[in-house]
Amino acid sequence: MSRFIITGTDTEIGKTVFSAALMLGLESAGASPHYWKPVQSGVTEGIDTHTVKSLTKFDKERFLAESYVFSESLSPHRAAELDEKTIDINHLQNDMPEVSGSLIIEGAGGLMVPLTRENLYINLFKKWDIPVILCARTGLGTINHTLLSLEALWSRKIPVHGIAFVGERNADNVKTIGQFSGTKILGTLPLIEDLNRENLKEAFDVHFDIEDFIPQDMAMAS
Ligand SMILES: Nc1ncnc2c1ncn2[C@@H]1O[C@H](COP(=O)(O)OP(=O)(O)OP(=O)(O)O)[C@@H](O)[C@H]1O
Ligand SMILES: [Mg+2]
User: Fold this and answer.
1) With a 6 A CB cut-off, is 110 part of the ligand 1 pocket?
2) Which residues, listed in sequence order, are joined to residue 136 by a DSSP beta bridge?
3) Which candidate among 40, 66, 98, 195 keeps its CA 20 to 30 Å from the CA of 86?
């Protein structure tokens, strides 16, 4: 079954909303999606696991408990310090849940977000060695941010599954990033005025191809 890391070119890109959309798509394909946000900073601003739960309406069994939850909405290394805790990278590396079905793991912020004073999130992605989906904006600035993020992934030989854009349609930005990177463009999730399960599922079905996210043998069977 599929396992993906959902990261982004920045914080607030739409990783959580895209994760929920992908779960809805995977569910239709019979891939029993599970969601895990290992490190959550900023409880008062809302917990991503709760957002995905309310957008998908899946049972609680589909949601793995966070390994670390911090009070302040800051980079995990700093949020941990303020809560007088330390993130243990080895613990996170070994804490990857075994699920029967597919697994969506959402990072925090972007790739170069520190988890500790020694380790960036991207170091953990390298240790996990599972494919990364890079969420990116569609608007001005995204070509630079997306190509820089891809370079960071390539230079560490981290498998890149593709790019999922979130935002208003911008055909030239998407095409330009595809041309310069040669990376698979998975689709663009449009901005949805009334974000709910039905609208998100419909948007995913229209703008993405679920076969890009499930193993070949499953795609042929469905
Ligand atoms: N397709 C969309 N349509 C409408 N609103 C969206 C969409 N995608 C994201 N948003 C909104 O944009 C904001 C940021 O989205 P989201 O929480 O998914 O970002 P994120 O990358 O997961 O952020 P973080 O780095 O904090 O985890 C939220 O308010 C969310 O509701
Ligand atoms: Mg999020």
Assistant:
1) no
2) 165
3) 98
Would you say residue 222 has pLDDT above 60?
no
- What does the block give as tokens for 34? 């599970």
The bound ligand whose nearest atom lies closest to the alpha carbon of 42 is 1
- The answer to whether 37 is a known catalytic residue is yes
> Which residues make Cβ contacts (< 8 Å) with residue 33, sequence separation at least 6?
22, 23, 26, 27, 58, 62, 101, 102, 103, 104
Q: How far apart are CA 192 and CA 88, in angstroms?
A: 37
Q: Whose CA is nearest to atom 16 of ligand 1?
A: 14
Q: Which tens digits make up the pLDDT trace of 137-168?
A: 999 999 999 999 999 999 999 999 999 999 99
CA of 144 to the centre of ligand 2 (A): 21
Quick one: CATH architecture of 3-216?
A: 3-Layer(aba) Sandwich (3.40)
Query: Which residue's structure tokens are 């953990």?
Result: 124
The amino acid at residue 31 is A
**Residues 37, 53, 57, 85: which is the catalytic one?**
37
Q: Is 52 in the pocket of ligand 1 (CB under 6 A)?
A: no
Whether pLDDT at 193 is above 70? yes
**Is a pLDDT exceeding 60 seen at residue 52?**
yes
For residue 19, the ligand 1 atom closest to its alpha carbon is: 18
